[in-house]
Amino acid sequence: MIAAAALVGVVAVAGGGFAGAEGPDEMWRERGLRVVDRAVRGDAECASHSFGQVQELLRAVPCVALERMIFTVTDDRGGTAVVFVAWVEFDDREKARGFKKVEDVHGTGDIVPLSGSLVQVKDVPFTALNYDSDVVDGVTVVIAEAENVAGGFTAEYLDDIASIAVRTPRP
Q1: From the CB of residue 117, how many other CB atoms can be counted at a distance below 10 Å?
Q2: How confident is the model at residue 152 (pLDDT cuts 50, 70, 90)?
Q3: What is the distance between the alpha carbons of residues 6 and 49, in angstroms, rounded to a whole number?
Q4: Considering only CA atoms, which of 60, 59, 56, 72 is closest in space to residue 121?
Q5: Counting beta carbons within 10 angstroms of the beta carbon of residue 122, is it exposed (0 to 12), middle (13 to 18) or buried (19 or more)?
Q6: Cα gap 2→115, rounded to integer Å
Q7: Residue 29 falls in which region: left (phi positive, over 0), alpha (psi -120 to 50) or beta
Q8: pLDDT tops 90 at residue 116
């Protein structure tokens, strides 16, 4: 059901990386990784694309925009990780900070990731254990999560991937 819903309005882009001289491409390369596939979807509403306490908050304090991206990174040894990034924009700083405070607590819910099938991987359950977040422009909360697909990336390495991904330019 999520995969079917995710296909509506999705733009899939095969090939490597993100634009911008200061984008994360250089950071990916420094760690021996490259972006293989990615898919992006934008929505004007957030609550229906979330669950748990995060969803409750978004029903009470609606966002003004949501962009979600899923992509894969690979290394030269055949390792693959799938990465989910979401940009949740609010109309003021207090709402963004309140959302981040709830989102950052493990087990409070999350934004629903796009389907892994959009980037040629089976759906991988995102655990939010390999996670990072930030507030950009004062009103947009960026969340990033990474999960291993193949190759046995360590939890620490997946955390590092999430820390890079949270700096991905907004689509």
Answers
A1: 15
A2: confident
A3: 10
A4: 72
A5: exposed
A6: 7
A7: alpha
A8: yes
Residues with Cβ within 8 Å of residue 21, at least 6 apart in sequence: none
d(CA 70, CA 146): 10
Q: Give one DSSP letter per residue of the chain, joined into a string.
A: -HHHHHHTT-EEEESS---STTSTHHHHHHTTEEEEEEEEEEES--GGGEEHHHHHHHHHS--SEEEEEEEEEEETTS-EEEEEEEEEE-SSHHHHHHHHHHHTSTTSEEEPPPPGGGGTS------SSSEEEEEETTTEEEEEEEEEEES---HHHHHHHHHHHTTSPP-
- Give per-residue pLDDT as tens, 25-49: 777 888 899 999 999 999 999 999 9
Between vectors from CA 132 to CA 57 and to CA 9, what angle results, nearest 5°? 65
CA-nearest of 65, 16, 61 to 36 is 16
